[in-house]
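thought: fold this chain, then report.
action: predict
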Amino acid sequence: LVPHRGLHLLPGHQKMREEHFMRFCSALLLFPAAGFFTSSMHRWQELDLVGTWSPARERPWLNQKVFDASDCCSDKTNRFFVLMRALLGYQDQPTPFELFAYLFYWLVAVAAGIVLVRRAKRAVAARLEDLRKAAAETTADADAPKNQA
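observation:
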């Protein structure tokens, strides 16, 4: 065990590396963020910022229901789907605008993740190269005969 690495209160702490745990938690947080983003787009629709919302018969195609799952999977009466709406932004009557927003969120999130990971890998590789050069110079200086005058 590495001292001063932090307190490990649970006996199973060695089963999962902290790096994997942090990556998993970071990826898991993307799902509520997608829900928040989609829910905010729904609020824009209700404020008539994306065309007419009320009355329903005057809505443009972007605000029409794609499907209606409220009979079995209502996000207002079924407790599980109420929770899914709160956590993940689930909609029992999604509109094309909400579906486009959800897809757009994931495209941006994945693209940003790829860019950030590549940038971090390049920075780590550059730092390792700098450390290797510094170590090589230190070794060369230590091996060189010392001139004494």
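thought: worth noting. The chain has four helices and no strands.
final: tokens above.
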